[in-house]
Amino acid sequence: MPDTAVLHGETIVIPVRMMNTQSIMAFQTDIYLPTGFNLFTDEDDEFIITPSSRLSSDHVIMTNRISDGAIRVICYTPNSQPISGNEGDLFYFTVQVPDNAASDYAINLRNTLLTNTDCQELAIPDAGAVLMVNSFLPGDVNDSRSVTVTDIVVAAQYVLQMNPEPFIFEAADVNVDTEIDILDVIGIIRIITNPNAAPATAS
Prior knowledge:
- By secondary structure, the protein is mainly beta.
- It has helices at about 150-160, 170, 180-195, and strands at about 5, 10-20, 25-30, 40, 50, 60-65, 70-75, 85-95, 105-115, 120-125, 125-135.
- Strands 1, 3, 6, 7, 9, 10 and 11 form a 7-stranded mixed beta sheet that branches. Strands 2, 4, 5 and 8 form a 4-stranded antiparallel beta sheet that branches.
- A hairpin with a 5-residue loop joins strand 6 (about 60-65) and strand 7.
- Helix 1 (about 150-160) packs antiparallel against helix 3.
- The radius of gyration is 22 Å and the shape is elongated.
């Protein structure tokens, strides 16, 4: 699982990857989510785990929340069909980031076991990833989850003391000088037209 930066309130698809030197046909692992984070479920309230192309149609995936709160995922094959390849994504799960999240949060995989095609069990070290949750997107002054011309207008209105609402001060302060002025308006324009440009600064 890779470390990922996200915005509060977003949904994020998280890949679980496997590198294997042996031929593997089955696995189990426990997903530990931070408090307040939820794994997406289907209309039957079953946790949604999406298999990658490494798994065949013969592989069966089952999930359940176990006694310690983790979500256990098991995958097996009735016909001893191996998982294809030796590297790459194994499956995906989708997480809802809470609206009030604004920090770094760990997602962990524990108690992972693999079964090779000789029916031998292999224990795998625990793994994890960090979700770096931001409370705002730089330049997204009106909290629309994207930076557009509207954010330029709203920032300009703020500079003119027109008190626009909603207004996210931290998102508007693109040059991080704790003031909102014309340099920030120019900075938002640069974010839209040239995302790799450095923020405008006073000389």
